[in-house]
Structures are given as structure tokens and as C-alpha cells.
Amino acid sequence: MPKYKSEDLLNELVKDVQRIKESAQFFQSSDQTKLAYSPDKSKWSVVQILEHLNAYNRHYLPLIEKHVSIVTHSRNPIFTPGFWGEMFTKKMKPNNVYEIKNKMKAMKAYTFPNSLHVDSVLQEFLSHQDKFTRLLEMAKGSDLNAIHIPITLTSLVKLKLGDMFRFLIAHEQRHMIQARNTLREVGVTTEKFPVILQVIPQ
Question: Is there a contact between 129 and 20 (Cβ–Cβ < 8 Å)?
């Protein structure tokens, strides 16, 4: 199991969130009518993808905030991922900035019709990235190993705080690649789309 310096990990995750925010700003500056276009009935539009991410953030960010808001003097300079956290993050994190190869089916509660207000969804997503950044900064005063957050699938499985951050950001990276590809499929040039993650060769 890999180990990370806690502060270095959090700083890298802050950079990841900034790239995700820049990607959302790219969508914001694009033709917003096309954000609601879907290449075909089996695929989500960009706004559906962003609302999927919003739904996860509505659930998880308040839970994380509740835990990191508790002032403690317990800090650990080293973060060691847990079994489930490492597995879920590796499964979720893209290893290719151009496509998503291992497709997954979303839970019904996290799928949305293509009748959303594009600007409202974008604004909420951007606000979530700002909150994400604040929580990562706040977490520098916490032990990333000691705080555990239950996952949506079952409350019986809880991820360490460090793993929850890693998993949620990998989830956003994955779907932002999907959203970029969707926008390109409906005819929008994405040459200036930000590179949202650094891929380490296996």
C-alpha cells in the first residue's frame, strides 16, 4: 500500500481541484445551448454529467465539513490509504486523458433528465469546487487516517478522509474527461480544454 506525506497529498489535490474548476470555466465560456446536447440517447449531455457530480457533492461535502470543522490537535504527517479507499480510487481514476475505458453504470438516484438549467448547474458546480478547496485546506489540521466517511452505497463501508478526498476528485476527473469528449462530439472545439490530471506511466 502506498504512503503519502499528508500535506503534500492535500496540496496536490488542491491543484487537481483547480484544474477541474478551470475545466468548468471552459464549459461556462462555451456555447451553453450545446451543453444540453447529447450525442445520442444512450449518452449524457454535459449538463447531465455536471449535475451528477453536483449530486455527489451535495451529499459528501457537508459530511466532510462536519468532520473537519471539529478542532483537534491530532495530526499525522503520513497518510496510508485503506483497502477500500485505494481500490475505489484506482478503479475510478482515469489513466488516460483522452478517453474513459472502464465504463461504469451510475445509480438511479444520481442520474438526471436532460431538462436542467445550464447556468444554475454550472454555478453550483463551480461553488462546489471552491468549497472543496476550502475543505482541503481545513483538512491540513486533521488526521487524514482517523476520520472516516460512509459511502453512498452502504454505511457499512467507510473511507478514511484522505481516501474520500482522493476518490471524489478522481470521480470528478473521470467525468470531466467524459464531458469534454461529449462537447467535442456535438461539434465544439476543445483544443483549449485544460489538462485536468497528470498521468503517471504504469
Answer: yes
Q: What is the pLDDT of residues 80-124, one digit of tens each?
A: 999 999 999 999 998 877 777 777 777 777 788 788 899 999 999
Identify which of 173, 123, 153 has the alpha carbon closest to the alpha carbon of residue 12. Answer: 173
Q: What is the mean pLDDT of residues 8-26?
A: 96
Q: Please report, for the domain that includes residue 174, its CATH number.
A: 1.20.120.450
The Cα–Cα gap between 198 and 196 comes to 7
CA-CA distance, 15 to 157, in Å (whole number)?
A: 28
pTM for the structure as a whole: 0.92
Q: Which domain holds residue 61?
A: 4-185
The reply to whether 126 falls in a domain is yes
CA quadruple 129, 132, 138, 142: dihedral, nearest 10 = -160
